[in-house]
Each structure stands twice: as C-alpha cells, then as structure tokens.
Amino acid sequence: MTHHVRLITPHITPRPHKRQEFGDLLAPLRFSHVNIADGPPSIESLHDEVMCSPGVVASARQAEADGVDAIIIDCVGDPGLHGAREAVSIPVIGPGEAGMHLAATLGHRFGVVTISDRVRPLLERNALLYGLRAKLASVQAVEIGVLDIDHSGDTLLPRLLDGAVQAIERDRADAILLGCTGFLGLSDKLSAALAARGTPVPVISPLQAALMAAVTCLSLGLSHSRRAFPPPPRR
C-alpha cells in the first residue's frame, strides 16, 4: 500500500519547490502539497502563527476528507499543530517537534539556527511545551525574512555557519536543527562546512525529520492519542 502524505504550507505564498527537500525519501510515498487559502504571506512571529492556524485546521480537515494518510505542517513553529490533531484522526506532524526530538537524541544539547530573533520566543516556548527546554542550548538568528531566502545567493550558508558555530562553541550544542523549513538543501552543506572547520555535529533538516516521523507512524499504525487531543465538541 502506498501512503499519501500531504504538506500543508501555513501561509499563502506558493512554495512549489518544497518537494526537493525530501529527495529519495519520498520514493515509497504519494505526496501532495497545498497552501492555506487565507492567512499571512509567511510565518515570522507569534501573530502570524495565530493568523494562520484556522487555515491549517481547515486544510487538515480537507486532507483527511481527501483520503490523505498523514499531514506535515510546513513550518518549524508548528502553527496550528494541536488544533489540527484535535480536528483529524490521521497523524499530524510538526517539523519543529519532530526535529527537536530527533536533535535531543543525537546529543546532550542542541542548538537551533533560525530566520530572525523575532521567532526565538516561539521556538523557546515550543521547546518547553515539548519537554525539551533543558536540552535547548540556544536559538541563533541569521536575520533574514522567509521570502528573502530564495534570493540570498551564497550569503546564507556562511550566516548559518556563524550561528551554528556560536551554538556549538559558546553554548555547547552537540547537534544543530535548522529553524526554518525554507532552508532547503542546506542541512548537508552546513554539516560539511562544520566538519571542514573541525566541529563535526549532526545537522537536521526539519522537513526530513517530519517526513520520517510520519512514515514511522504510518508503518507502525500509530497516530496521536485521542486522550491528549480529543475531537472538538459538536455545536
């Protein structure tokens, strides 16, 4: 049986190239990708998270109605994650949650390198919610807008490297999680750059971590607990 995984981008800006981040990991899967119908142009603040959440829940309901087997929310902030889990019975995976838990298994502490210091409170709050705040060494920001990532050319990798080095050398991080699902194709490049300067640590792509978490759930026949995420009341 081929499982169908849907990526829900929680903003209205088309991102048709997200499929490339998964590469051969998608080989045994059917994949689809949608944006929410109404919401912010990108997710770069707690305000954006709130504004996009209704669209994420609506898109999750539509995915289940379409026969999709698992959902991934296309943002490390995991906007709408818990509401979507209450709304549907199929697995709903947040790249932030999946990536943080994977990073926590690969070392004693992990660092996150993200877009802007404006999202640091969101990521720190989520680490606390996921029971991983003590393992979060730091959140480093490269100060770039989500919609500017595609136009950053060769300047983005050195900035990610600087943030990762600070997390490793100053804050004692043992692993690095990329803190934006827009950092496509950069986990391997950043890992190689860190190894070249003598600081080899695992670098995690949040989208890849989320996809493999979805595959694990589907392979084991698991989904979120209805005790933790009960369906909303009928009105």
Brief rundown of the structure:
The protein is α/β, with parallel strands linked by helices and 235 residues long.
Structure description:
The strands form two sheets. A four-stranded parallel beta sheet has the order 2-1-3-4, with helices on both faces. The protein has a four-stranded parallel beta sheet with strand order 6-5-7-8, with helices on both faces. The chain contains seven helices and eight strands. α1 packs parallel to α2 (81-87). α4 links the parallel β5 and β6 (136-141). The chain is of the alpha/beta class. The chain folds into two domains: 3-94 and 208-220, Rossmann fold; 96-206, 3-Layer(aba) Sandwich (Rossmann fold). The termini are far apart. It has helices at 46-65, 81-87, 95-105, 120-129, 156-170, 187-196, 206-220, and strands at residues 3-9, 29-35, 70-73, 92-93, 110-114, 136-141, 175-179, 203-204.
